[in-house]
Design brief:
The chain has 51 residues and is mainly alpha-helical. The protein has two helices and two strands, in the order αββα. It has helices at 2-6, 26-44, and strands spanning 13-14, 23-24. A two-stranded antiparallel sheet has the order 1-2. It is elongated.
Length: 51
């Protein structure tokens, strides 16, 4: 829908508090959170015994 109406994806967040930061959308945030959670769960559930 966005590409048809606006010619590109509409970004939601523009962080510019202390320095210029990338513009990103909600889907990018959710993907990064999911990957971080997967890595955290994998790290916590790793086997303590050597292979």
């Amino acid at each position: 829908y966005d590409r048809f109406i606006h010619g590109g994806v509409v970004d939601y967040f523009y962080w510019h508090r202390w320095f210029e930061f990338a513009v990103f959308n909600f889907a990018d945030v959710m993907i990064n959170i999911a990957v971080a959670l997967i890595l955290l769960i994998a790290y916590k559930n790793r086997s303590k015994s050597p292979i």
